[in-house]
Design a protein that fits this description.
By secondary structure, the protein is of the alpha/beta class. The chain is 42% helix and 10% strand. The strands form two sheets. The protein has a seven-stranded parallel β-sheet. The chain has a two-stranded parallel sheet with strand order 6-8. The chain is globular. The structure holds S-adenosyl-L-homocysteine.
Length: 349
């Protein structure tokens, strides 16, 4: 699809044309990755963060947020829960937290790989190539690092350089991760203040250029205690001007569907941010418009509300068993079977 065509779809308002887009995305999803929905158990292992990302509620300046770091034993318990619930993968996610030392993460990966049949996905931010190499050698399978927006100037504005002073070139980092033989996942937020339709089209083209194994897109949800969540910006984010794509459900479905059409074989989650906008059926609709993955939370209940990347996140009052039960019911309601095994794109099991 050409850039102009992507932009036209992103700006499409005609309901019957959009029905065609959903149907085509659903057909391509079925033909390329089948009907199975793979479940990835998300463990939010720490909410400490040294970065100052303008959009994120975990940013270091939020001194009023109570911080937690799970112990390795707690993480292992959550991983065992994931096995018990029949998930094939755990995703270890955190703020950028040097308090989880690289060797401790490596030990944890080895423990999970030794004790369970789980694939291990890491989502730990911008760590060093040496750390990524260590973790890959310890058995980690995949790495998630969203580039957030392909508009470099906008990205630099919302994602200041870290305390190490290393330039934050996430696209280059994804290439490094690929070279280390990780399956790589990335994605963007939709409706960031100042973002344009052309930016979103460029995001989709970048997904294809990077040949991503996983693509996660979700609406930007303003957090009032962050620079981007302040009133002036918030208005921007919600207004639909000729140039500013709204941070809403419809725009997210369009991005999911177009990601499916541009990267037919990728794993594409229907995200929690989507469920946060529409708890009733946001995730289900995502799965019917191109997505094939869901990431049920297995973080211990007592930590969930503290992993506050944005406010009123879906599923923070439920425990892992409840999330499992709830999601299986939702998948059954739309006639989609739960995937077996690790649900890998490149090395299927
Ligand atoms: N520290 C890790 C994990 C961050 S949380 C990292 O930087 O990769 C995972 C994702 O949540 C981020 O990549 C971002 O896309 C998303 N996110 C953060 N704040 C958000 C917000 N206010 N609204 C929507 N998504 C947000």
């Amino acid at each position: 699809m050409k850039t102009a065509e992507l932009i036209a779809w992103l700006q499409e308002t005609d309901a019957s044309r959009l029905e065609q887009l959903w149907a085509e995305a659903d057909r391509v999803r079925h033909a390329n990755v089948g009907d199975e929905v793979h479940l990835r158990g998300l463990i939010e292992i720490s909410n400490y963060c040294i970065r100052r990302c303008a959009y994120c509620g975990l940013r270091v300046e939020r001194t009023e947020l109570a911080r937690y770091r799970m112990t390795p034993d707690e993480v292992m318990d959550s991983a065992r829960d994931a096995v018990k619930f029949g998930y094939g993968t755990v995703v270890l996610q955190a703020g950028e937290d040097p308090g989880w030392r690289a060797d401790e993460i490596a030990d944890l990966i080895r423990c999970i790989k030794c004790e369970t049949p789980l694939a291990v996905t890491l989502s730990l931010g911008e760590r060093t190539p040496d750390e990524w190499r260590l973790w890959r050698a310890a058995g980690a399978d995949r790495y998630l690092l969203r580039f957030e927006t392909s508009n470099r100037a906008r990205y630099d504005l919302i994602h200041p350089v870290g305390p190490q002073g290393r330039p934050s070139d996430r696209i280059a980092m994804l290439r490094e991760l690929r070279a280390l033989d990780y399956e790589i996942g990335s994605g963007v937020m939709i409706g960031i203040p100042g973002q344009t339709y052309a930016d979103l089209a460029r995001d989709l083209e970048t997904f294809r250029e990077l040949n991503l194994d996983m693509i996660g897109v979700g609406p930007f949800i303003p957090h009032p205690d962050t620079p981007l969540g302040q009133a002036g910006h918030r208005q921007d984010a919600c207004a639909t001007t000729a140039e500013q794509p709204p941070a809403n459900e419809l725009m997210t479905f369009k991005m999911i569907a177009l990601a499916r059409l541009t990267c037919p074989r990728a794993n594409i989650p229907s995200t929690t941010a989507l469920a946060t906008l529409n708890i009733k059926e946001g995730r289900e609709l995502g799965l019917q418009r191109g997505a094939n993955i869901v990431m049920p939370n297995v973080t211990p209940l007592k930590y969930r509300a503290l992993y506050e990347i944005y406010p009123a996140k879906a599923c923070i009052r439920e425990d892992g068993a409840h999330c499992n039960f709830c999601l299986r019911g939702r998948l059954a309601s739309i006639g989609r079977p739960v995937g077996k095994g690790q649900g890998s794109v490149r090395r299927d099991s």
